[in-house]
Design a protein that fits this description.
about 450 residues; mainly alpha; 21 helices; about 75% helix
Length: about 450
């Protein structure tokens, strides 16, 4: 009798598990869709390689499905998402200051619209962090980057009018983006994330190492020296985590080697900066960035405490406004501050800069501890290294509709959450219970 009755509960459990599997599959697809949307790689394809303003009505509208996906993922696990936000009060403070800047913004209509986009962009990172453990989170991100890499390869080979630069740096691969450095930066991130997926998911290691190799190849074809340096730094970070996890002695040796390496790079930057500029393929002005920084600092000095409002000044038309003065002092029109730290100070004032610095420092400390305690460091540390390097020359912090901000938020929140603990004894007991009906039938 037992042998006859036992299969029916198993069949019922399979029927119950099937809808659950579909939900998980749909959630994974939505997660990949989020990252692909915020990558902005589709903008160049949409315009056929022509310049397309990210502020156009069409482009703004096409982000709405991603916002909807984020809300859908939030609805599946609302308590976990709230718990993730509670563990990141400094992130909430940054968002609160950005919202408050609406009251003194020089362009309140733009600030209100962009804060709306910032909230949903940040929410996307939170729901990714609270839904997945480290291996699954790495695979969700790596899947998106694999799609971007494969489509970019196809475009570069078969649609060169879009996939390769035609005027500046002719022949350099730019893939789905309008410029080779943006393409190289994204592929450098893809290489670091795919390698993390390989380390965290041994069963699909060959697949993810293949994606890593493809991303590195695309970085080389972009001819972006900065991106190549980023790949090398990310590889060093991955090697550091791998060595530390070999054992205490290897961990101590790797830590000292890392400290010496950081000190050496800092010394070169301070006392022999021309070597660093040559390695990055930049001149002493960092391709005009120092002129932008000087012009931005002059405007910061006029309103150091409150700033000019979140994302408010870069499209303003006032002939005597802060943007007009930045253009006058820099000698050309920049589209952002080309430095994430100056951008926060310019937009959100000193309180916003301090809040962002606190959030960044908290994530830095969490990354350092993760090297010695969590396998998730394979994903978090290499990305953090590349992200930190990019913040010095690009405005990528507290940015709306941007993949890098989504991933940074996701990793910061995931680092603040505890890892799931396995229970070997309980697992063995469950396995014994599963085998019990079969033993009775025998």
């Amino acid at each position: 009798m037992t042998a006859v009755v036992a299969p029916f509960p198993q069949a019922r459990s399979r029927r119950k598990a099937q809808p659950r599997n579909w939900i998980e599959l749909a959630a994974f697809a939505a997660s990949v869709f989020l990252i692909l949307t915020y990558s902005q790689g589709w903008v160049s394809l949409l315009s056929g390689g022509a310049e397309q303003s990210p502020e156009s009505a069409l482009i703004r509208t096409l982000y709405l499905p991603a916002y909807g996906m984020a809300v859908g993922l939030l609805a599946l696990r609302p308590l976990e998402s709230v718990g993730g936000l509670v563990r990141q009060p400094l992130l909430l403070l940054v968002l609160g200051i950005a919202w408050a800047s609406l009251f003194w913004s020089v362009a309140p209509d733009q600030t209100s619209r962009r804060i709306f986009a910032l909230v949903f962009t940040t929410l996307s990172g939170v729901v990714l962090a609270t839904r997945y453990d480290w291996p699954k989170l790495a695979e969700a991100m790596a899947t998106a980057f694999a799609i971007l890499a494969v489509v970019s390869l196809f475009v570069c080979l078969f649609v060169p009018s879009v996939g390769r630069m035609q005027t500046l740096f002719p022949g350099a691969w730019c893939g789905l983006w309008a410029e080779k450095n943006a393409f190289g930066d994204n592929q450098a991130l893809g290489a670091s994330i795919a390698s993390a997926a390989a380390m965290l998911n041994p069963r699909r290691r060959k697949l993810w190492w293949g994606v890593t190799a493809l991303c590195v190849f695309l970085v080389l074809m972009s001819t972006s020296k900065t991106s190549l340096v980023a790949v090398m730094l990310a590889a060093g970070a991955t090697g550091l985590v791998w060595t530390v996890r070999r054992g205490p002695a290897a961990g101590v040796a790797a830590t000292w080697a890392a400290l010496v390496g950081v000190g050496l790079v800092a010394s070169i930057a301070l006392f022999a900066s021309h070597i660093l500029f040559g390695l990055l393929g930049k001149d002493a002005t960092l391709t005009g960035r120092t002129q932008i920084w000087s012009a931005v600092m002059r405007q910061i000095q006029a309103r150091p405490w409150e700033g000019y409002g979140y994302a408010a000044i870069w499209d303003e038309t006032d002939r005597w406004g802060p943007l007009a003065w930045i253009i006058h002092d820099a000698g050309f029109r920049p589209h952002h501050a080309h430095n994430s730290w100056l951008e926060q100070w310019l937009s959100l004032g000193l309180p916003g800069l301090i809040a962002w610095a606190g959030f960044y420092l908290q994530t830095l400390i969490a990354n350092v501890f993760a090297i010695y305690t969590r396998a998730g460091a394979y994903l978090a540390l290499p990305f953090f290294v590349i992200y930190s390097l990019t913040t010095l020359t690009e405005s990528i912090a507290v940015v709306y509709n941007d993949m890098r901000w989504v991933i940074f938020v996701a990793l910061a929140v995931r680092l603040a959450l505890p890892d799931a603990k396995t229970a070997p004894a309980a697992t063995a007991a469950q396995a014994a219970r599963r085998n019990q009906p079969r033993q009775k039938s025998q």
